[in-house]
Amino acid sequence: MYDDDDVSFMAEQQLAEAIESHIEASADVIDEISKLEKKVQTWNMEESKELRSWIVAMRILLTKHFQISIENFTNMKKIPTQKIPEVLIPIYGIVAVDKKGICLYGKDMDKLAHIDQIKLHYQKSKQAK
């Protein structure tokens, strides 16, 4: 039979082990997030699909493990990109454009379209008004 001191000690030990395990697991996640962030911030502008996959993976890890939005974690405006017409950025949420003109855009930064398609959509929406 255990007395109250033994039970308290065992509970404290279990809590300490759980915290240590969580910290170790968090360190691995933080390392993965850091690697993804470095890839995003040093993207070579070749493939928007590749950039999208890194951003989606980073968003999932940040949300799942730390309840942090990617926009509050890293400066998305520092992502390398081809020139983006300023007027289109806030309307479509364009994050970056690769060397072939493929844009990564959208609220969740998970949509792809050629810049010419976005420009055409913008022109049509302006004419409709």
Topology:
Elements: H1 4-41, H2 48-66, H3 70-73, H4 88-92, E1 96-97, E2 102-105, E3 111-114, H5 115-128
Antiparallel strand pairs: 1-2, 2-3
Description:
- The chain has 129 residues and is mainly α.
- 62% of the residues lie in helices and 8% in strands.
- The chain contains 5 helices and 3 strands.
- The protein has helices spanning 4-41, 48-66, 70-73, 88-92, 115-128; strands spanning 96-97, 102-105, 111-114.
- A 3-stranded antiparallel sheet has the order 1-2-3.
- A hairpin with a 5-residue loop joins strand 2 (102-105) and strand 3 (111-114).
- Helix 1 packs antiparallel against helix 2.
Instruction: Give the H and E element order.
Output: HHHHEEEH
Q: Helix/strand/pairing class, anyone?
A: mainly alpha
Total of helices = 5
Q: Write down the overall geometry.
A: elongated
**Could you tell me the mean pLDDT?**
88
Q: Which percent range fits the helix content?
A: 55-70%
Please indicate the percent range of residues in DSSP E strands (runs of 2 or more).
5-15%
Keywords:
129 residues; elongated; mainly alpha; 3-stranded antiparallel sheet
Q: Short description, anyone?
A:
With 129 residues, this protein is mainly alpha-helical.
